[in-house]
Amino acid sequence: MINRELIRIKIVQLTYAYYQNGNRNLDNAEKELLFSLSKAYDLYNLLLLLIVAVSKEEQHRVEIGTQRAQREGTEVPTTKFVENKFALQLDNNRMLREAAETLKLSWEDNIEFVRKICNLIEESKIYRDYIESDDDSYEADREVWRKIYKQIIQENEDLDALLEEKSLYWNDDKEVVDTFVLKTIRRFESKNASRQELLPEYKDEEDKDFARKLFRATILNADTYQRYMSEASKNWDFSRLAYMDVVIMQIAIAEMLTFPNIPVSVTINEYVDLAKIYSTHKSGGYINGMLDSIARHLIKTGKMMKTMNEKVSKSEESSGNEEVSKSEEEESRSEKQ
């Protein structure tokens, strides 16, 4: 689940913090990086558990409503939503149950928030259409939860505030993690029952090594990389750079020089996007030009054995080095729209 997009985000944050912190201990900083990445995986499991918690609260409401209806001779509430086949499968999922137990994840201390989500669901058109539909297929049950998550949970300000209280990391992580929760919902299949696989924390050890190597290269070679910036910026006003711009370009240079299979164009695109998020509104265009000049300088001086003629889109990092393939990148982005 932890892909290179998230790794790059964390390294930008942690590198900036490293230079702002007076006590610059690289080993401790690396531990903090890996810990912050692991917290993103905790959030992934916690958000899946929210679906389970909402389903259980709805079950409780149906039981109370049924008892009241039997006493008063009124209509018994429908059980369609609490018998949702996808939600029941998720509740029984072995990997999720193990994660909840191991990581001590639960919504029990936030039952009032869970009840608010239930109220929003019951008031929604998604819920009404689902209850009124004659379609009782597994696919319909799974789809209603995809819609609920996308429209009610993903952009929920109360949830954002609650997560910020729980962890300093989670607000920065949530937008990326949401795409993986939605992807997980869509990939569930009835035939897999409780053995349905969730996304692993890392696809393989190579992605975890990517985080370590990129962070260490960024810090250990800082003086060299900043010299490259100066050498390549003769036609640029280097003083215009915000400090975050320098950090972002330093990481980008580290990636270009440390990972020969990642095309230059992919690296530049990734860090231009990060500059737009974490630096000034002008930083994206400025860094794009700077990194292009730096890359050409490194190639010309023989410091980097790459070419600049790759016509590669941002999602096409070659040789399987990304945690997700091109199609999966597009899939993730579609969930954000």
Topology of helices and strands:
Blueprint: H1 4-20, H2 26-72, H3 85-91, H4 94-103, H5 111-122, H6 125-132, H7 138-153, H8 157-166, H9 170-187, H10 205-220, H11 222-232, H12 243-258, H13 264-278, H14 283-300, H15 326-336
Helix pairs in contact: 1-2, 1-10, 1-12, 2-3, 2-4, 2-5, 2-9, 2-10, 7-9, 9-15, 10-12, 11-12, 11-14, 12-13, 12-14, 13-14
Please supply descriptive tags for the structure shown above.
elongated; 69% helix; 0% strand; mainly alpha; 337 residues; 15 helices
What does the radius of gyration come to? 24 Å
Helix content: 55-70%
- How far is it from the N-terminal to the C-terminal residue, by CA? 20 Å
**Topology as a string of helices (H) and strands (E):** HHHHHHHHHHHHHHH
Point out poorly predicted stretches.
Answer: 310-334
Number of helices: 15
Q: Mean pLDDT score, rounded? A: 89
